[in-house]
Specification:
51% helix, Ybab, Chain: A, 3 strands, YbaB-like_sf, mainly alpha, single chain, 150 residues
């Protein structure tokens, strides 16, 4: 076994540290621009979130004025969840490029809003109470009531 030259070892170690620093700076720069955006199905409400899922913009079109406040709230929450998952997917992709499939990546995934896994096994967001609500007119509802015993 050949003896290790301390100066050479220190030089190699310094190069590794510099490379790690550059990778960290690249990741920081890429993650800084990550965000997600989603709209309600009718397109009246659009939300934007940053990489951590924090709401950064909310656009409500004037046509939404006649909507029930609970409908607006439900649309905002649903769009926010979709936008968070979009941003989470981008974060996971960036981090996969830097740390590969590793415990560090699993930690990042665990920190994502809505339990994002990014491997196709993510559960769909449950429908909100408003989306599950039967909104048929009373005559239709009582003529053909829902099957509550199923």
């Amino acid at each position: 076994m050949q003896p290790i030259d301390p100066d050479q070892w220190l030089k190699q170690y310094g190069a590794k540290i510099e490379q790690a620093k550059q990778h960290a700076e690249q990741a920081r720069d890429q993650l800084g621009g990550v965000g997600g955006s989603a709209s309600s199905p009718d397109g009246l409400i659009t939300v934007t979130v940053n990489a951590t899922g924090v709401l950064t913009d909310l656009q409500i079109k004037p046509e939404a004025r006649g909507m029930d406040p609970s409908e607006i709230a439900s649309a905002v929450l649903t769009a926010s969840s979709k936008a968070q998952r979009d941003a989470s997917g981008r974060v996971v992709q960036i981090m996969t490029d830097f740390v590969g499939d590793s415990p560090a990546l699993e930690f990042v995934k665990a920190q994502m809003p809505n339990g994002y896994k990014g491997d196709g096994t993510d559960e769909e967001e449950p429908k909100s109470e408003l989306e599950r609500k039967d909104t048929r007119p009373d005559d239709d509802y009582f003529t053909n009531p829902p099957d509550v015993m199923a």
